């Protein structure tokens, strides 16, 4: 397979530093020796440096960052500060867009900064329930992608991971069906192909109420390359169960 699956846990505003390191120690002990997929955890900022001392095969990411490298931006965290602590950074998560009113232009600045400082951006896009019900899903996703990736070169876009997270599926228990998710992932891959991206080497994750009971059916889809998991990543046994199920996913074509 040209795109090994990526299973990511987005902890949002959950877990203290000691809870983070205990989780990581436990998960590292459970993971099999030859891990055929990528496991990434996105703990809160304050836990990143302790987490970085505990990881072995697990990779780390930040849940957000500011686009400037330093300066008078009280409360923000810069890409320079993240360098050396983590490899990935989540950008444009729907909670950032909807609760903190982040707009595409700002997400675009963050993407450029992440790439400049060699962080791997995981760009989240997704439509609301009203947008889906109104038949606007593809148009919304194309707009988000176009604005968020504006001005990036083909080589830069190639380094991005996209996470399709329908807003109506996040934290609701209301997962997209494998067919709905596959349809969107195929659409996103086609958009990337139109931009001359090598789409076979481009990872597109699904997020939104992924759990042990539905992960296999989603990950079996040809264009779903992994999962971004919120609630179901908070308990180590449940998250490990998802990882184990993901390991058994075999894809044709890939
Ligand atoms: P959920 O969250 O798995 O709890 O729906 C996913 C996310 O917000 O990344």
How would you characterize the overall build of this protein?
There is one protein chain. The chain is α/β, with parallel strands linked by helices and 254 residues long. It has a single domain (6-252), classed as Aldolase class I (TIM Barrel). Helices cover 39% and strands 14% of the residues. The chain is built from eleven helices and eight strands. It has helices at 17-30, 48-54, 79-82, 94-98, 104-116, 129-133, 137-148, 154-158, 178-194, 215-219, 236-247; strands spanning 6-10, 38-42, 59-62, 88-91, 120-125, 161-164, 204-207, 226-229. It has an eight-stranded parallel β-barrel, surrounded by five helices. Helix 2 (48-54) links the parallel strand 2 and strand 3. Helix 1 packs parallel to helix 2 (48-54). The longest helix is centred in the last third of the chain and has 17 residues, at 178-194. The radius of gyration is 17 Å and the shape is globular. It starts with 5 loop residues before the first strand and ends in a 7-residue tail after the last helix. The mean pLDDT is 96. The site of 2-phosphoglycolic acid (PGA) has 13 residues, from strand 8.
């Amino acid at each position: 397979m040209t795109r090994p699956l990526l299973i990511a846990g987005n902890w949002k505003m959950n877990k203290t530093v000691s809870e983070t390191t205990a989780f990581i120690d436990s998960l590292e002990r459970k993971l099999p020796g030859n891990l055929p997929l990528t496991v990434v955890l996105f703990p809160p900022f304050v836990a990143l440096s302790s987490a970085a001392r505990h990881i072995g095969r697990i990779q780390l990411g930040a849940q957000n960052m500011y686009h400037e490298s330093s300066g008078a931006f009280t409360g923000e965290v810069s890409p320079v500060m993240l360098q050396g602590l983590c490899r990935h950074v989540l950008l444009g998560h729907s909670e950032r867009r909807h609760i903190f009113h982040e707009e595409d232009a700002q997400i675009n600045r963050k993407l450029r900064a992440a790439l400049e400082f060699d962080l791997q951006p995981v760009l989240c896009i997704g439509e609301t329930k009203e947008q889906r019900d109104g038949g606007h899903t593809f148009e919304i996703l194309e707009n988000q992608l176009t604005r968020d990736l504006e001005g990036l070169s083909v080589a830069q876009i190639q380094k991005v991971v996209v996470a399709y997270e329908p807003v109506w599926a996040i934290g609701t228990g209301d997962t997209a069906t494998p067919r709905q998710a596959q349809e969107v992932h195929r659409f996103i891959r086609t958009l990337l192909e139109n931009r001359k991206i090598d789409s076979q080497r481009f990872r597109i994750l699904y997020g939104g109420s992924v759990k042990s009971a539905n992960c296999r059916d989603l990950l079996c889809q040809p264009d779903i390359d992994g999962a971004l998991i919120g609630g179901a990543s908070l308990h180590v046994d449940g998250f490990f169960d998802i990882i184990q199920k993901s390991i058994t996913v075999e894809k044709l074509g890939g």
